[in-house]
Amino acid sequence: MMDIMQPSSGGQSPPLSNRKPNRVLSGPSLVVKCLLVAACCLGSACISLRHRQASTSGGGDQTPDPQPPTVERRFSDADEWAKRFEDPKRDEWQQPEKVLNLLSIAPGAKIADIGSATGYFPVRLSRAAPAGMVYGLDIEPDMVRYLNRRARDEGLTNLRSILAEADDPKIPERVDLIFLCNTYHHIGRRVDYFRARQADLRPGGRLAVVDWKPGDLPVGPPPGHKLAPERVISELTEAGYALVMRDESLPYQYVLVFQPTHRWDPQR
After folding, report:
1. In a shared domain, residues 132 and 218
2. pTM of the model
3. Residue 137 and residue 34 share a domain
4. What CATH number does residue 242 fall under?
5. What pLDDT does 40 receive?
């Protein structure tokens, strides 16, 4: 390989008399060249800045989130999380049968559980609606794997888990009930998110939110991660829903049920 510092003409430099003099720019030519160089540098800087902004904001809407999630946490190890989520002691305060009774699940209901995790409620919902269908929706691939395996092992042919996205739960068909337990506060841009969910509801469909009561409680997240029921009602009212049922008889959670105030029914 020729060294880049070596001369290329038989190892000798051409005589000075044969060398072409360097062209010196002056006047307008120099100004134009300087402006072109500056423009290129500025353009590169702007492209770099946009790239950094896109990489830090996901490349989507750059506006601040008006309803940011109160906590962002991954739940990737489903087998480990199942020890907590499916702990039989949870039944004492979660009171799942009471929640199901409040919701009056029809046997043929189609239900979407957003944030289905390891299946604490989806399994119960599928048994409450044996002639219907339950979709467990989660953004964690390992949770989807776990719940599909659990449905297969427990013979629940009307339960299927689907990988969701942060801004789209991927509900595959219109349903009678969209259900969230301890998930609402994990969602960002909630007004837009739930306004769009109206298209996932069948006529007469409902949206049910079970979430933590404010304050320092023996179970659940820290107080700063919780949303008061009034905040949830306000956001979902803005998203086009009306509150049709409110229950706070559970020890640590409230149950809110909504229906759309008007049908938003785009082509699907």
Report:
1. yes
2. 0.74
3. no
4. 3.40.50.150
5. 38
